[in-house]
Specification:
The chain is of the alpha/beta class and 207 residues long. The protein has a single domain, classed as P-loop containing nucleotide triphosphate hydrolases (Rossmann fold), CATH 3.40.50. It has 7 helices and 9 strands; from the N terminus they run E-E-E-H-E-E-H-E-H-H-H-E-H-E-H-E. Strand 1 (2-12) and strand 2 (15-25) form a beta hairpin.
Amino acid sequence: MTICLSDTGKRFNRDWIFRHFTYTFNHGQTYAITGPNGSGKSTLLQVLSSSLAITEGKITYTHATEQKNISEEKAFQQVSMAAPYIEVIEEMTYTEFMNFHIAFKPLLPNITIAQIAEIVGLQKAADKQIRYYSSGMKQRVKLAQCIFSNTSSVLLDEPCTNLDADGIQLYQNLIQNYCSNRLVVVSSNDKVEYDFCQNTVSILDYK
């Protein structure tokens, strides 16, 4: 999916978070959204995901292969997202949560929930309630449900939050192995999280 913003702006009350944002996020490309804390990176990512309505301008979602527009109401079907403010259901186990998740978004072809648990290092805790997970384990769950969803666009907000060195290496491996030929957008100030990105967009350019 390609996402095109034309003279787009988002305002909360009287404060503009960003404005006059004209940019195209092309399918198969990787993008980093950078800027200081509180500058609006997360807001922009939520706009791209279609979970937050814009105040002005236009946003267009286009199917990459069929070259036809996708309505904003249906764009979420092509987007998966991981962010610190998106919570998992802690009363569920990993296995229960992933089964619940795939009722809304199927997994990538030829992979199972059990295989994903092994890949992200949660196989021994797969039947344990997520409430008992460490913060790093919870982040692995968030990355798993995002990256292994069969979507054309992957949006990641500070994806290495709470991850140790092994977790960061896992994240980088997941990007390399499962995100090719997808639109990937990373909101971050840490190069460890977005060093692979081909394009960089500074939110400060649209203030």
